[in-house]
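During the reporting period, our protein records have gained a structure token line. A sample record is set out beneath this paragraph:
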Amino acid sequence: MQPFIFSLAFTFLLSSCSLTSTTFIKPGEHFELGNNQHGSFKVRVKNISGHELSIWEAPIDGGRHSPVIVRPNQSVRIKVDKDTALKIENKQDKEAAVKLRVTGDTGLSMGYNKIKG
């Protein structure tokens, strides 16, 4: 019984340090991950849409850097600095979907915003 409890506790500990999600993004919107104060994190993004998506990092005190274009079925790994958001933009006229796996600090805000001009 003890090995089972240890195994269960170890599995819970590992899973509490990461999060996985399939995230849908409406046309003309971007998904924001980590637009709050937090530590660094790593994210694996897989584009499961039929069109390209734009990804960039945005420090919460302003700015924008490290743009990446992710093609359909392509995966990218991104290390995001503390207090920096990751933004995934859908400029197309069809809904987009991504699979996310986040490790590191997972106390991240999540939300959607319309693409500006």
Notes: Confidence is low (pLDDT under 50) at residues 1-15. The beta strands are 18-25, 29-33, 41-47, 53-59, 65-70, 75-80, 84-90, 96-104, 110-114. DSSP finds one helix and nine strands in the chain. The chain has one domain: 19-114.
